[in-house]
Amino acid sequence: MKPETEKYTDVPTQEMLISMGPQHPATHGVLRLVIKADGEIITYADVDVGNLHRCEERVGQNLKYPQFVPYTDRLDYLSGMNNNLGFCLSVEKLLGVEAPERAQYIRTIMVELNRIASHLVAFGTYSLDIGAWTPLLYAFREREWIVKLFEQVCGARMTFNYMKIGGVREDLPTGWIADCRRFLDEQERRWPEYNRILSNNQIFIKRTANVATVSAEDALAFGWTGPCLRASGVDFDLRRDFPYLVYDKLDFDVCTGEGLKGTVGDCWDRYWVRMLEILQSVRIVRQCLDNLPDGDIVTKEVKKNIKPPAGEAYVRTENPKGEVGYYVVSDGSAIPWRVRIRAPSFNNLSLIPKILPGLMIADVVAFIGSLDIVLGEVDR
Amino acid sequence: MQPAQIFEKLQAEGVAGLLEFAEGPIDPSILVEPDKLQEVLSVLKEHDDLRFDQLSLLSGVPYEDRFECVYHLLSTVLKHAIVLRVKLDAQEPSVPTASTVHPTADWHERETFDLVGIRFEGHPDLRRIYLPEGWVGHPMRRDYVDPEEFQGIPLTDVKREEWEAEEKAAKAAAAEGAASEEAAGSGSDGKAEG
Amino acid sequence: MGLLENRLPNVGLFKLADKAVDWARLSSIWPVTFGIACCAIEMMATGMAHFDLDRFGMGVFRASPRQADLMIVAGTVNVKMAPVVKRLYEQMPEPKWVIAMGACGVGGGPYCKYGYNIIKGVDNIIPVDVYVPGCPPRPEALLDGLMRVQEKIRKQQVLTRKSN
Asked: Does residue B187 lie in a domain region?
């Protein structure tokens, strides 16, 4: 009997053109991929972004500086505090002011708590993409606690508008610090659960280890930053190398991918770096709470009508997704001349046309989930 | 290394195309001739003391009399950063592509072409990335006028305008009804009095 | 319901049959997974253990619009996305309902003034049943909106004849 493959060599085959998205359960938002596949293996991939293009930069050209801060929340809506901070730091650089000590510590606490929340959503939705329902419930259980802490401070669950140019909007309410410490203890206690459910799960490892490995040269060339870059082996973290806020006074490790379950730079590494960063963020918040000074929360040098002198400023901050920067050009008036936003997910996504050919269609889902993209900032 | 030192290093290497070093305001930057841009980027990337291996951001900024393209570079190895800028013509802004040196510029340049309208010579695939095909105009330019509709899809709040028109008509009808009732009522009063 | 739709007289036991059909429909609304922007995260949070959509019967989010009867438009709809929303709406079988969630779905949201490619309110392209304001609306607000859809369904006359 002839083997199966020999029977069908004279059958003509054709490549299939598949449009994945924009409504798709596993593309993390309204992302559209146009894929040419020969059977199950991809031969060509193109990305069609712009389904969530909301003209943020045009809005930035038409509103005053404090009026633009709420719009920064909606860029990377899972880490609003980080985006608020990036914009406020750029404008503060233009004005030449610095937030007071207490405000800097509070800002660090909020930014790191938001990092934990964002990584938890990444963990939960990645597991959903791979096919596991339970980790998502575990992730949102912790996230609800963080969101409740944020709500006690600034009144909002997701779009905070908490950072002011020159400091923060509100001080910490009574009892917040004790609640936060309790949360940190619980988060540390529950972290090994995630490993038992997902990280060491054989099915998860088979689907993510050695899949879509990205080398360090490719990652740097395509503008990758953040956990994705560190998972490819590059030891670079803006918090340590270009310090801002109070990171130079704090003690934390920078986690890089080591290829524990496969090769350095595969999907499992990118996932694992995020899990390790959750623990590092817990460590940072504990240090900030222990050393929180008293004082003002807003600097008095910033007037009500903010009119920075003519000039440009670009400040880089470490978002949970990568490097976020706001390039603000001022012409001396109360409205910025240009606000250009550097979004990490935009760059992280640009490697898709290079990496995807050669993978199978099911691996596309594993790859996109490991990038942890948020379409709000890809499309701006 | 500080930006001034980086500029001196480039001058010492004999790199052509460096126009001037602007100390500020706020962020110092190196002004580069558009034609020599790719050379400058390669030297910045390959030189042992400079090693600018990542292009963080590429922005197109429209001014009244010119366009500017600003490049923010970062070195993950030596932990320093620099800003390059090129000044472009106001009527037909065009600059050689940076994607031969930094592949990440591919998508940034597509975005700048889409929104600001700067053309990048040598780009492998310069087409719109955010706005749909068939969109006319470059929205980030200062003289852009918002369209009212695009291929049949309304871009103004048509439903709200209809609803407001209905409300207005309903109010006018109610006012007319009340006025005619009053007229009828006063008429009868008059008769009763009379 | 095909042959029986609005055929039976509006009296006695038939009214009860109507109530039963309405109760069955409102207790098992299946939404389609259609999160566009930030409101999608609040929709996910509403579906999770803390606020729990499953107790309303709405926990089954279907990926295919042909298997769903509720579309929660959560996020800003722009020109590129508008034909997609319309096509998804047309693919859903009757009876279907639409919730416009968040300020962007209701009337363009914070981008209504300077957004050059934003649809100013999703009701310009598809008919909407319930509007839930907020940016983003709290999960409790979304649950309120869903309960209003349930109220709307409760009042429908499916089997009995509608009186003019």
From this structure: no
For the domain made up of A53-344, give the CATH fold: Cytochrome-c3 Hydrogenase; chain B (1.10.645)
Whether C120 and C107 have beta carbons less than 8 Å apart is answered as: yes
Read off the pLDDT of residues B89-138 as tens digits, 9 standing for 90 and up.
888 889 999 989 999 999 999 999 999 999 999 998 898 999 988 888 89
**What are the boundaries of each domain within chain A?**
53-344
User: Are residues B131 and B153 located together in one domain of the fold?
Assistant: no
Domain containing residue B133: CATH number: 3.30.460.80
Q: Are residues B118 and B168 in the same domain?
A: no
- Reported in sequence order, the residue ranges of A266-333 that DSSP labels E, i.e. its strands, are 311-318, 323-330
Same domain, residue pair B131 and B174: no
Which stretches of A252-380 are assigned E, i.e. beta strand? 311-318, 323-330, 338-342
Same domain, B121 and B45: yes
Question: Do B87 and B167 belong together in one domain?
Answer: no
Q: Are strands B18-22 and A338-342 parallel, antiparallel or unpaired?
A: unpaired
A77:C41 CB<8 A: yes
Q: Is residue B189 part of a domain?
A: no
Taking the C-alpha atoms of residue C30 and residue C33, their distance in angstroms, rounded to an integer, is 9
**Do residues B127 and B43 share a domain?**
yes
Instruction: For residue A172, give both structure tokens.
Output: 């910490």
Residue A49 has, within 13 A of its CA and on its CB side, a CA count of 26
CA distance A185 to chain B (A): 34
Strand intervals (E) in B48-117: 54-62, 67-74, 81-88, 94-96
- Does B155 contact C117 at a Cβ distance shorter than 8 Å? yes
Interface of C with A in 25-84 (CB under 8 A): 32-38, 40-42, 44-45, 48-50, 63, 65, 75-76, 78, 80-81, 84
B78 within domain boundaries: yes
CB contact under 8 A, A121 and C41: yes
Whole-number Å distance between alpha carbons of C18 and C160 = 7
Angle at A220 between CA A215 and CA A223, to 5 degrees: 125
DSSP states along C39-96:
HHHHHHHHHSTTT-SGGGT----BSSGGG-SEEEEES--BTTTHHHHHHHHHHSPSS-
C132: enclosing H helix or E strand = strand C130-132
ipTM reported for the complex, 2 dp: 0.89
What CA–CA distance (Å, rounded) separates B136 from A352?
Answer: 28
Rounded to an integer, what distance in angstroms lies between the CA atom of residue B39 and that of residue B54? 16
B175 Rama class: left (phi>0) / alpha (psi -120 to 50) / beta: alpha
Domain count, chain B: 2
CB contacts of B131 in chain C (<8 Å) are 79-80, 117
Residue from A374, A356, A372 nearest A35 by CA: A356
Alpha carbon of A311: minimum distance to chain B alpha carbons (Å): 5
Residue with token string 């001022």: A330
Check if B150 contacts A (Cβ < 8 Å).
no
Are B66 and B124 found together in one domain? yes
Specify if B89 maps to a domain. Answer: yes
**Domain assignment of residue B171, given as a range:** 146-182
Window A:99-118, CB contacts with C under 8 Å: none
Per-residue pLDDT of B133-171, as tens digits, reads: 888 889 988 888 888 888 888 888 888 888 899 999 999
- Chunked in runs of 10, what are the mean pLDDT values of chain C (164 residues)? 76 85 91 87 90 87 89 91 92 92 90 89 92 92 93 86 71
Closest residue in A to C85 (Cα–Cα) = A23
To the nearest 10°, report the CA torsion of A63, A68, C80, C130: -100
